[in-house]
Amino acid sequence: MTLTPHQRTVLNYIGEFQRKRGYSPSLADLALAFGVSSKNAVAKVVNVLVREGQLEKDPKGRIKIMEMSDKDEGMAQPMMLPLFGPISAGFAAPVEEQAEEMISLDTYLIGDRSSTFLLRVKGDSMIDAGIFEGDVIVVNRKKTPKLNDIVVGVLDGEFTLKRLKRDKGKYYLQAENPDYPDMYAMEELQVAGVMEGMIRKM
To answer: What is the pTM of this model?
Structure first.
């Protein structure tokens, strides 16, 4: 059976709820989210999703997304970690011991998987921006670059990570290290993607 758009929306909401909080929504949560006054309305949708194998219920009636099938067992699963905070970066403050939510690093760092790729940094031209050799940057190839964005530039066919600048209407790439000169294209400057995040293994 093909799910209706509404059934698919409910299923997606349940999955996102689980990824963010680490547990499944109740019928009351679903009713509130979809603006219906009766839990019976969402219960009918949930029952259809259970019947179609998209959801399952535990002995207490709580719902969750079905585990991956055997054919998908080899695929990597998102790692859910507790998010605590905030933590003071100034004066000391009381510790917050209750996790705000459960998050997965992939959904936290990556908004659109289809347009995102990772690059490992080589060299020290961006150290004043806090980017060091060996760091892994998260790049969005579809995001429209703006002035001062850190971008993957294609300068006369060569790739480099620099900050996008403009002077007198002409775009150029600027390093974040005074030892490196500004880079102007002899023929063409393109942007292959905009940096959106960074991963560093300590």
So the answer is: 0.57
CATH number of the domain that residue 175 is part of: 2.10.109.10
Domain that holds residue 183: 113-199
Angle at 82 between CA 20 and CA 94, to 5 degrees: 120
Indicate the number of domains in the chain. Answer: 2
In a domain, residue 78? The reply is no
Alpha-carbon distance 92 to 155, whole Å? 46
Alpha carbon of 178 to those of 13, 127, 173, 175: distances in Å? 48, 10, 13, 7
pLDDT in tens, the chain (202 residues): 577 878 888 888 888 888 777 778 888 888 888 887 778 888 888 888 888 888 887 776 778 766 544 334 444 455 666 666 566 665 655 555 555 566 666 666 777 777 888 899 999 999 999 999 999 999 988 899 999 999 999 988 889 999 999 998 899 999 999 999 999 988 889 999 999 999 888 7
Residue 52 and residue 183: Cα distance in Å, rounded? 57
Active site residues: 125, 162
Residue 82 lies in a domain: no
Question: Is residue 153 in some structural domain?
Answer: yes
